[in-house]
Amino acid sequence: MTIEIADLTRRFDRTEVLRGINLAIAEGELVALLGPSGSGKTTLLKIIAGLDWPDTGSLTVNGQDWLAKRAQDRRAGFVFQHYALFPHMKVRDNIAFGLTVLPRRDRPSAAAIRARVDELMRFLQISALADRFPAELSGGQRQRVALGRAMAISPAVLLLDEPFGALDALVRRDLRRWLRDVLETSKTTSIFVTHDQEEAFELADRVVIMGAGRIEQIGRPDEIYDHPATPFVARFLGLSVELPVRLRAGRVEAPGLDATALPRRAMADGPAMLFARPADLAPVPAQDGPLRVAAISSTGALLHVQLTDDGGLAVETEVPRRRGLHLSLGQRVTLRVEAGQVFRDGAPAETPAETPAADSRPVPLRYEHSSKESLR
Ligand SMILES: Nc1ncnc2c1ncn2[C@@H]1O[C@H](COP(=O)(O)OP(=O)(O)OP(=O)(O)O)[C@@H](O)[C@H]1O
């Protein structure tokens, strides 16, 4: 089912919770809505479900106006974190529920419902739980049953709101893989809300990053991971080190910074901001380096190495333990940047002008700013 959302807005009192959402979802796609708390993810999902209505905008599914349909007429399946199973019903009856309450003209026969439930339980690998009550299930098993209940009606779209939020990390990982297989096989168009980056990136065909009621970026997981389109997305995805730099002939430069590994940018010369993940910054011992090692702590495989300059700037880096053993407190270093994103005035970064492999000319470091100004 193709879903088209256009110019959707929603406000509660004076708070604009959705500020013009435009999103098209293709048949069979699995889309993750990812964003910090309060960014409007659940509100958008509820509007698609028919549990809330927008102030303006449109929502069409396969060309039909869903805003003109009641929730029960939309054939949307839900799996919510706290949407409990019916405690007095066995697993098989919970799964059958959506079919048994259909209007008589649409309702399959009792035998057909039983067959559909058996088939679904086999597909979801929960046949052994058929005669248990919800209280006799683990949290992970309950969510599998909840998915079965949502899928029983052959939903036009499956909506999942933090479906694994209440489960521990190991069970979550297991269920994630299971869910991906199930949705890939069933080809159900699905939208799920999460604030867990790993979950979104592992599961989704496309990720929608939301911030303060707007869509900041839509893309395939690796596209978004490698090329965050805005400073907001960069920070949200862990590019937490922000360094003022200068662009010269598409190259990123700053005193003590070796950014030759970055692709050239099709951007005019001038000041810019480089955003990078701590793991993509490597301290390199250098007698005249503008930075000093201020602290080293270990989490086992990784060393967290904090660097400062004479002006009090702090830069977090993360180094694999074996590569960081030569570092010592107080040592002078320069910084090698292995990956990062460049923004100018908060504007989306330009696409790289060329790949780094295509241009391996070394660019000398320049030291024309004082270190205080340059790396703050
Ligand atoms: N019924 C409501 N009345 C008033 N404000 C609401 C209502 N529902 C949501 N909000 C507000 O709208 C904003 C967005 O909420 P929403 O639940 O959509 O965010 P979210 O991105 O799903 O967050 P979370 O990850 O915490 O669930 C929040 O500031 C919330 O307080």
TrEMBL record:
InterPro entries, A to Z: AAA+_ATPase (IPR003593), ABC_SmlMolc_Importer (IPR050093), ABC_transporter-like_ATP-bd (IPR003439), ABC_transporter-like_CS (IPR017871), P-loop_NTPase (IPR027417)
Residue ranges of domain ABC transporter in the record: 3-237
Low complexity composition-biased segments: 348-358
Molecular functions (GO terms): ATP binding; ATP hydrolysis activity
A Pfam cross-reference name: ABC_tran
One BP term from GO: quaternary ammonium group transport
Region: Disordered, residue numbers: 344-376
Regions of compositional bias (Basic and acidic residues) in chain numbering: 366-376
Record keywords: ATP-binding, Nucleotide-binding, Transport
Domain of life of the source: Bacteria
Name of protein: Sulfate transport system ATP-binding protein
